[in-house]
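[Meeting: bench + compute handoff]

Bench side (C.D.) handed over the final construct sequence. Compute side (W.E.) agreed to return the predicted structure before the next meeting so the bench team could plan truncations. Sequence as handed over:
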Amino acid sequence: MAIVAVVWLGLDRNAAAMCAGEGVCLDLFLNTEAWLADLLWGLAAAALVLFSWEAVRRLLPLARQMELELERLVGTLQPDEAIALALLSGFAEELLFRGAVQGSLGLPLATLAFALLHTGPGKALKLWTLYAGVVGLLLALLMEWRGNLLAPVVAHVAINAFGLTRLALRGSGEPLHQAAFSDRGSSAKVGGEGEDDSENRESSEDEGRSW
């Protein structure tokens, strides 16, 4: 995806207006005089999205179903792999959609294309498309306001890192609450076997004393 973005920017050298026809330049990625503000705004946008989504998933069963569907699609994923995937996907998608497509085709089409990239069969994954559209609009507005990719990249990476790490910690294919029930069941079984063994030993000792 990053390669597509670089080729796009090379072909349409006016897509990134801040690069003055050079295609790709440092100013596309950050403003050296305001990078700290851009970083903080990116983190603030990520926090807004994550807190809002937490409220939605508590109120809407379909949102929790969406997470289960995404967990199934992601499969087995270690936390460090989740962080690496978040870094790669966040940077590459922002470079393409906010860096190249938005500059060439405008904010609405870039946001729509971003939303349609995140889709799948069923109502739960259609909610994912809607969620991606809302987040994509926020990232696009950040790009328009701040004038470079740092804020949207930071926000995107943070959102993906939190979501993917949570999916990774839930385990591969088994929801967290089921794993908890399974663990409690196993503990109860072990404890029950221990009590049975203790009772058998006491019974044997009593028989020995009676003889």
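W.E. noted at the follow-up: Residues 176-210 form the longest helix (35 residues). C.D. will use this when planning the next construct.
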